[in-house]
Amino acid sequence: MKVSRLPLLLLFIFVWQSSVLYAQNSGKIAGVITDATTGEPLIGANVVLEGTNLGAATDVDGSYIILRVPPGSYTVSVLYIGYRKVVLQDVKVMTDLTTRLDVQMKPEAYEGEEIVVVAEAPVIRKDLTSVEARMQAEEIKRLPLQELGDVLNMQAGVIRDAGGGIHIRGGRSTEVSYMVNGISITDDFTRSQAFQVENESVQELQVISGTFNAEYGNAMSGVINIVTKTGGSEWQGNLDVWTGDYVSNRTGLFWNIDKVNPGDIYNLQGSFSGPIIPNKLNVFFTGRRYYNDGWLYGKNVYLPQGRMQPVNGDTVAVRGDSSAVPMNYTDRYSAQGSLEWQIIPVLKLRIDALGSREKRRYYDHFFRLNPLGDRGDEELGYSVIGKFTHQLGKLTFQELTYAYKYNEINSRLYEDPYDPRYTHPDSLNTGSFQFAKAGTDLGRYNRYTRSSIFKWDLTSQVTNRHQIKGGVEYQADEIYYDDLTLVPATDANGQQIEPFLPEIRDISTPVHTRATRNPYKFAAYIQDKIEYESLIVNVGLRFDLFNPNGKIPYDPEDPNVYNPFKDIHKYKDINGDGVIDESEKTEDNKYTLAERESFWYNETKPKTQLSPRLGIAFPITESGVIHFSYGIFQQTPDYRLLYVGDQLKVTSAGGTQGPYGNPDLDPQITTQYELGLQQQFTDNLAIDVTGFYKDIRDWITTAAPTPTILAGVSYVRYTNRDFANVRGLTLALKRRYADHFSFSIDYTFQIVEGTNSSPEQEFFSQIGGAEPTRVLTPLDWDQRHTVNATFYVGGESWGTSFISRYNTGQPYTPELVTGTRTGQSILSGLPKNSRNKPSIFNVDISAYKNFQLTDKIGIQVFLRVYNLFDADNPVNVFGDTGEAGFTFRRDRTPQADPGWFDIPSFYSEPRRIQIGTKISFN
Fold it and tell me: Which of 183, 408, 424, 844 counts the highest number of beta carbons within 10 A?
């Protein structure tokens, strides 16, 4: 008996360690099978998805439902004794949606006679109760889309800010949840994507910008749900090789791109998939090596270790060789694979592994002439997902999932903190508006987040009209971070050691922060999809609980446990009178750090939130549907805002210090309303018009300064106080691919106003002497007008595509020069974000030609050009002129280094050309 129970025990352990996800990764096929002559329902007709084990038999009313169909294209066969077999080809299934297939069958005249029909996917989706955008693998291949971010850029309601952050419907860039196969791959420390998912892996990309269902949580603005490929019934694969470079005439701005070097950008990617055991065990794998030198280069004029050497009675910095050094490069390895095992007809196991390792650097203008002194980042991220799908009955199944997610970032110049190449911090001291002539970046940063994710989901089509889905999810996190600045080593007398030696100070000091935190999340949801001919309703309720497992000082006037200000916190009150007298102020009577920590903190409390969701669609005609949706969405603040600096190491140095993390922050809340219309004009052309309004509360900002017991010393922590609202309209016109061409045009108008664009903005504004924000102003990404357009023409053997983008400029805060005194300008700040940057226009193009070498092997050659017209698109401007290339500061600052005000990062990337080939086999 013990042996026979072991497999069940192992299965139970796996099931118990199962999941934190948010989405179903399958769709549904439903319809009615009838007699073509009489219209009578056919009872017991078989509907089968060829190449799979999915299918259903019709009920007494001729209806059928097939659940858990992965997104993709299928061939569906309908069989009934005495009737001609009907084969429907190219049936499209999408995640969370119902594909209707109503079939009229004709009596069989001859044995084996069948009817073959190419299914036409509906141009509008009648069961869509909120706005979303979807792209299948075939669509992604047709367009010049290299990365996942390129795909997101083309969606209505999605914009990028000057720093590259993605904003959906006006929310902050941290309000997007990234998911793969129902698992969150969002790194909760910064709310960014934990690792790169390559386009080659994507079967379907779903961008939900509207009111999403209750199964989705911890996101306020949008959900990006990626369903990855798995192996099919036949072996196939490809090898994709291309190279390229930046080609631009703007060499005065973008130095070192005047010569074409194909090695500056290159890509090597391959994939294969197929059945290891037909109809039982399938595999998919893809790997990629990608390098891009970037378009922003530094000039190695000065050396980091250079010293000021006497020359003819003067001193100059030791010179470098003036070679080009890339300052915004990307160097990435990535791999993704899946294994799908149909254990028995009612039980399937799928295992996915995805990950990437990337080295990169962000341009720092200060280091432009000393580029070897600046540090870069190295990021490692991966996830392993195991999911059991168990068919409990004809129309009921459950999913049990476990996932492990890891993200780590290292940022440093040299691996060894005691590397002799580090230089004294004074080496970086320069005058205003001057480049670094020597010196090294002394900062070092290491941070990782590891998550164990568990989930159980149950889906049941309880009647033909009601599909109920519910589940619970749990996520346990471990966050570790170590952030420090190297300082000059000192001897026993506190004197700096000469020559310079770097030193790591203790974590009790402000220059070194190290901590580990262990928060967890729990959620439960239930939702019902109600489907009638004239009404579709998605209604749900979600419960979220977050426990930060944090601590906050019990005495706000004396927050630093390492260096307390009050005597009562330094020394033990031996006589218990509540006062520390002189006799008690001895070294032997001091509290140890461990003793202080035992009484210093109060525990934070768990946070809970209920979030109702409602979406309603009204088909008004066969070709038109109106939808309305409403929802409340909550999101846990970034872990960075909760934990970094939560030790509150306030010093006696004076002034307002911070901002510091606050583990007692509440969830942020967004309430969204949406009203829209889908209307089909022709068999292939439709429009979607949607208006939306968002009310955002409890955004994170900085609190008013908290005074300490020391005069002139205060500190600032994060708090829930900011708010914003967004109102907008999107129009999307789309012609699906037919007769060798397709196109889409979408337009977004939106107004994004709030109190502050970032959590830190209020703090730095007040430090600069500004008044606290009391009114709504345009936020940094308030992009009023955005137009995206795509066009594709071609077929199996050749094709070409265009992507065009236009948007009005995002706002900036202007500066007004009111006078000068002793050579210094006096600037008067005008209202925040009261002017707009110039508009941006961009065109990308791609073309390909296919050659069939054999029945099984084909080759494609392709050309891609990004920023075809090499447009001068500014992403940042000088506040005094509103231009990226001109400022009056140039004339007012004679001490500025030549070239200081020529900032290439103020512009988007120049023209980029890629050429390559893809070899495919099947």
Answer: 183
Residue of 109 and 123 predicted with greater confidence: 123
Q: CA nearest 18: which of 183, 191, 215?
A: 183
- The yes-or-no verdict on residue 822 having pLDDT over 70 is no
The pLDDT value given to residue 8: 39
Contacts 24+ apart (CB under 8 A), 556-559: 556/706, 557/706, 557/707, 557/708, 557/709, 558/708, 558/709, 559/648, 559/650, 559/706, 559/708, 559/715
Query: What kind and span of H or E run contains 840?
Result: strand 840-852
Among residues 244, 292, 237, which one has the least CA distance to residue 270?
Answer: 237
Supply angle C-alpha 662, 663, 664, rounded to 5: 90
Q: What is the pLDDT of residues 668-717, one digit of tens each?
A: 999 999 999 999 999 999 999 999 999 999 999 999 999 999 999 999 99
Per-residue tokens: 705: 């300064």
Dihedral-angle region of residue 212 (phi above 0 means left; psi in -120 to 50 means alpha; beta otherwise): beta
| 620-679: pLDDT as tens digits | 998 999 999 999 999 999 999 999 999 999 999 989 999 999 999 999 999 999 999 999
b/e code 240-261 from CB counts within 10 Å (16+ = b): bebbbbbbbebeebbbbbeeee
CATH of domain 2-118: 2.60.40.1120
What's the rounded Cα separation, in Å, for the pair 617 and 552? Answer: 47
Computed from CA positions of residues 658, 660, 665, 667, in that sequence, does the dihedral angle turn out positive or negative?
Answer: positive
pLDDT digits (tens, 9 = 90+) for 870-900: 999 999 999 999 999 999 988 889 999 999 9
- Report residue 350 CA to chain centroid gap: 24
Residue with tokens 């420090």: 484
Q: Nearest-CA neighbor of 888 among 805, 814, 810, 778?
A: 814
* Distance, CA of 646 to CA of 638 (rounded, Å): 13
Query: 79 by DSSP, 3-state: which?
Result: strand
Tokens read off for 626: 């109106």
3-state SS, residue 243: strand
**What is the per-residue pLDDT across 716-775, written as a single tens digit (0 to 9) for each?**
999 999 999 999 999 999 999 999 999 999 999 999 999 999 999 999 887 877 777 778
Residue ranges of domains in the chain: 2-118
Nearest to 862 by CA among 790, 911, 918: 918
Give strand pairing partners of 793.
741, 800
In sequence order, what are the beta bridge partners of 865? 845, 913
Q: Return the pLDDT at 17.
A: 37
Q: Specify whether the CB–CB gap between 246 and 910 falls below 8 A.
A: yes
Q: For residue 484, what are the contacts with CB-CB under 8 A and spacing of at least 6?
A: 443, 444, 445, 504, 505, 511, 512, 513, 514
Tokens of 896: 């500025």
Which residues contact residue 861 at a Cβ distance below 8 angstroms, ignoring those fewer than 6 apart? 848, 849, 851, 915, 916, 917
pLDDT score of 2: 39
Residue 894: other Cβ atoms inside 10 A: 8
The structure tokens listed for 643 are: 């934990």
Give the DSSP per-residue string, 654-672: -EEEEEE--TTPPPEEEEE
